Amino acid sequence: MASTAATHEADMPSMGQRWYVLIVMMLVYTINIADRYVMSTVLEPIRVELKLSDGGVAFLTGVSLALFYVTMGLPLSWIADRHNRRNLLSFSIAVWSVMTTLCGLATGYWHLLLARIGVGIGEAGGTPPCNTIVADYFPPDRRAMAMTIFALGAPIGAWLGADLAGYVANAYGWRHAFFVLGIPGLLLAVLIMVTVKEPPRGRYDAPMEGNAPDFAATMRFMLSQKAAIHTMMGSGVSALWGWGLMWFTPAYIERTYGLPVGGGGGVLAPIHLIGGIGASLLTAWLFARPSYTDPRKILRVLAVVTGLATVPSFLAYYTHSLDTARVMWWIFIPAIYFYIGPAFALGQNFAPPKMRAMFIAISLLVANVFNLIVAPQAVGWMSDYFAGGGEPSAASLRMALLVLAPTGFWAAWHYWRAEALAVEDQKRAVGYV
Question: Could you list the residue ranges that cross the membrane (predicted)?
Fold first, then answer.
């Protein structure tokens, strides 16, 4: 590994400071995913209470959030590349936490729609600053490991959104599930303002002269980075495949196997917690090894794991046995966490320091268009179509999910294509491999 950019020793954070910031950023991601996933857990009672079709509830709960998430992501990332990221992050957490709480206070369709829009606006300012802050606390050869620890927020957040929210919804009603997940975010926003220091931008990377490039220059450079484009598409299609399936799975379990409200989340919660954390820690251990500083090896592993996991993702919805489906989910669900940390890290290493927040924003835009707009709306519409104009059923939802499941092979192809281009792109972005 070549030497990183010259820096003053006094400017370097201690090991304890690095890990404290990493854990706090992981908690931000945890709250982010939990606040998003709670909607999936209570999807069925919301649909029934508001008398919606599957396509209608998909728009209310997923598309409404995503439209503003992706719209606001680019300007907020532009701000993050130029101004204090800690302050932006703290403000964004406060916004989405307040709006999540307001989801629980909604008394009708329009109230809930506006609250979900507010959640999307707040969340747009969350992940890009988190990523770039972590990148400036860890050098390039440790970022795959650090971003995988950061990505532990996804399984922990999904578990909270499934298990805790499912328990509260079953005991007290779906509105209370939003209260227990929205309020803690406000405390986390204060903690960040008080205890996290804004790091010098790009201190571990080759110097980049001048101000941050404008949007057009960033896009030109990004489009020249073919490995970056394939990695973004791979992670985006992975979100379409894995998280797209997860969006309707709690409702599918409850319809198919006759479980109560929160029962679907109860089936999935231990898989998210144990399997997701296990997969994330395995990824962190694997990519912390010296032999995995080569981006080509990381991409090869992502391609193989994603391709193999696509098979059980199909079988989970093909079978009519809950026991068999549960086994398939134990194989498939951990794989949807495996790619997150490495994909974030590769995105950082394929981008110069002053373009990173925008690279992350574009990557998240692709992922969230697939995950929050295309996947839930397409599954909802397909379920309505397969229902033949009648009430959406377990059978109609099963058919829709079976159509989505094979897209995992598409994601694997993008990782495979990125592998051949990765070394050249990383050298161009950060000066070395």
Answer: 19-38, 58-79, 91-112, 144-162, 174-194, 227-248, 268-287, 299-321, 327-346, 358-379, 399-416
The answer as to whether 320 is a domain residue is yes
| pLDDT tens-digit map of 185-210 | 889 999 999 998 888 877 776 555 55
Residue 195 is assigned to a structural domain of this protein: yes
Please state the domain count of the chain: 1
Distance CA 93, CA 192 (A): 10
At 192, which amino acid appears? I
Residue 348 in contact with residue 235, Cβ under 8 Å?
no
* Tens of pLDDT, residues 283-303: 878 877 777 778 888 899 999
Q: Which residues contact 143 (CB under 8 A, 6 or more apart)?
A: 134, 135, 345, 348, 349
Q: Which of 236, 276, 243, 266 is nearest to 401 (CA)?
A: 243
Domain with 134, as residue range(s), is: 13-201+213-430
Pick from 286, 30, 278, 273: nearest CA to 145: 286
Number of H helices, E strands in the chain: 24, 0
Tell me which amino acid residue 37 is: Y
Sequence-separated (6 or more) residues with CB below 8 Å from residue 28: 89, 93, 126, 130, 153, 188, 192
The two three-digit tokens of residue 372, written as one number: 């929050």
Does residue 207 fall inside a structural domain? no
| Residues in CB range of 395: below 8 A, 6 or more apart | 386
The enclosing domain of 340 has a CATH number of 1.20.1250.20
Task: Indicate the helix (H) or strand (E) that contains 123.
Answer: helix 109-123
Does some domain include residue 7?
no
Of 412, 301, 347, residue with least CA distance to 135? 347
